[in-house]
Design goal:
The protein is an all-alpha fold. It contains 20 helices and no strands. The two termini are about 40 Å apart. The N terminus and C terminus are likely disordered.
């Protein structure tokens, strides 16, 4: 059987279709909250330029990650173990666990504020957002099959929501607001690029997925095209967003909630666009749950345990307390994360994946190798395989039974090959063969 990854065991947990759906539908959904207003504040009508720069950079990183997947079936953990040792691999996974939790700090506050703004007319209780952490805590206790199912479900939800909202919005957009191109000073555009690095660092999430995904020929092309399609969704949305709001766009947080509100029919039949917003919210919940799930999976791998429940409970509990205590300090956190610590996103999402290209790559040996292991197996998988090896197969002789037993086995085989009637001729042929 073809060699798999650690949590694949005999078969991959994730397939190319689910990776494509993640790149095309889950990643773009995370760009529709605070990022459009931020780019509008810095780049104004040129907001498409820093966004395009981000996508070109991340496309290069994604291509590098997929190249690694195509040249080695060892997974990210196994690749580091082969070159730097298992201890170094655990350290790297521990750092990525911290990074994924860190990368969720500001988006979680954005998501909380979005829920309060879009779904409540009056200020709700602060603890209402705990429902997200209940969902996230449950998802974090599952393996990556849950992620694959979420990606499959997100495809129709995203398409229905996005296409519906754009149909309602594009008629009220004035695309001349985007002119002239390059009308904003380069320094402002570059500042917008740097301060939104955290919103475009999604490709790092694919690194732990390599342990559950087996590359197949042609997958790289499909995933890259899917990522390009997701980029097209976001760039088109940014153009419509700035076309509608123009100079006041920087003050329009949670952009995708507001673009459709000027559709003429809404004043007659009511805000039916909220149904589309609800669908997009489900996709957002899947996405941010996966970010926290990645942190849990990396941490459990780093400490060598499979007990995800306590790790999930601690992480989600701490983040819930964080959202309660720091919601009023959003601006201070924004400046600390986006202005002071932007290099963290650059390091973990861009530099480290590109440096992995210099690591020595080799295919997993599978059953043809000396040990038959990829280096990524879980303890349960290794124990099961060991037990199967110790149990003799049906019709097989123990290793000690040689000599006479071997001759007896040969006689039995020759006798079976004699005539089926078991008569004299068959016995004579068997005796002659002896």
């Amino acid at each position: 059987m073809t060699q798999g990854h650690s949590i694949q065991q005999d078969a991959p947990v994730l397939n190319g279709r689910q990776m494509c759906f993640f790149a095309a539908f889950l990643i773009p959904a995370s760009k529709l909250l605070a990022m459009p207003a931020l780019l509008s504040y810095f780049a104004k009508g040129d907001l498409l330029l820093p966004a395009l720069g981000h996508y070109l950079l991340q496309a290069g990183v994604l291509a590098a990650i997929l190249f690694l997947a195509s040249r080695s079936d060892r997974g990210f953990f196994g690749l580091i173990s082969d070159n730097l040792g298992k201890t170094a691999a655990r350290i790297v996974y521990g750092l990525y666990a911290v990074y994924f939790a860190f990368s969720a700090l500001q988006p979680l506050l954005d998501l909380e504020r979005f829920v309060y703004t879009a779904f409540f007319d009056t200020a709700p209780p602060m603890c209402i957002f705990c429902a997200f952490f209940l969902l996230s805590g449950f998802v974090c206790t599952k393996n990556l099959k849950a992620f694959g199912r979420s990606a499959d479900i997100s495809m129709p939800l995203f398409l229905i929501s996005f296409v519906g909202l754009m149909i309602l919005s594009v008629g009220t957009a004035d695309f001349t607001n985007l002119l002239p191109v390059f009308g904003t000073p380069f320094r402002s555009t570059a500042t917008g690029f740097l301060e939104t690095l955290g919103h475009f660092s999604d490709t790092a999430l694919i690194l732990p997925l390599l342990d559950a995904y087996r590359y197949r020929k042609g997958d790289a092309k499909k995933i890259m095209l899917s990522y390009g399609g997701g980029a097209g969704f976001v760039l088109f949305f940014l153009a419509v967003f700035y076309g509608i709001f123009g100079p006041i766009a920087p003050r329009q947080e949670f952009a995708f909630v507001k673009t459709a509100q000027y559709f003429p029919a809404l004043s007659v039949v009511g805000r039916f666009d909220l149904l589309l917003i609800y669908l997009m919210t489900i996709v957002l919940l899947f996405y941010y749950s996966f970010v926290l799930q990645s942190a849990v999976l990396c941490f459990t791998r780093a400490i060598g345990t499979e007990k995800q429940l306590p790790v999930s409970a601690v992480l989600n509990g701490l983040l819930f307390v964080y959202t309660l205590l720091f919601a009023k300090h959003y601006n201070a956190l924004y400046y600390a994360i986006s202005l002071r610590l932007f290099w963290v996103f650059l390091l973990f999402a861009d530099v480290i994946p590109l440096l992995c290209l210099f690591l020595r790559r080799k295919k997993g040996t599978g059953n043809a190798g000396t040990s038959g292991h990829s280096g990524n197996e879980t303890p349960q998988a290794l124990n099961k395989e060991k037990a199967q090896k110790q149990k003799p197969g049906i019709g097989a002789l123990p290793a000690k039974e040689t000599g006479t037993a071997g001759k007896t086995s040969a006689k039995a085989e020759i006798s079976v090959s004699a005539k089926p009637d078991g008569g004299k001729n068959g016995l004579e042929e068997a005796s002659h063969a002896q």
